Amino acid sequence: PTGAEDVEFRAALNLGHDARALARVASGGELSRVMLALKTILARLDRVPTLVFDEVDAGIGGRVGLMVGETMRRVAEHHQVFAISHLPQLAARAHHHIQVAKGARAGVTTADVRVLAGDERVREVARMLGGDPESEVSRAHARELLDAATGGAGATAHRVAGGAGAGAPNGSSNGTPPVAGAGESGRKGKRARLTS
To answer: Contact, 67 vs 159, CB < 8 A?
Structure first.
């Protein structure tokens, strides 16, 4: 309000549409993806150590989900990244997988948080894929997604257990842990994920 200029971001979010004010036409997921694009470009210059993306996966899946997951992994080289997601492609790209489950104890709503690693993480990604987490086919697909994120089974075990960031041996280059990922719980109530 004190400057001489007003700035308005405009975007054409769909083919054939004119550019319009981003604040008026973008959904929460689209705003998160625009922020992710900007943070990707400005990652080395930005001094904000931690980024939180909520529903960055809204309205996407498959190959686009993999691309968004890879982009978030690159941003995590320079920032700590938390993303709330229901997409297994994003969860598989996370350096750490955190499951947040809404529950109840003695009539009070709780949020239960667990870090998943190894077979627990494979089962959760398998469940997120919509398969039976106990089925070998579902678990093989989950392992394939997890291995693709790091270049192989050995790299996956190192990154999950050791927490190394992509391209940074001991975490992100700014000294914060690189990424947190999470899975959806099987409990009743709202489900949430933190991934990247």
So the answer is: no
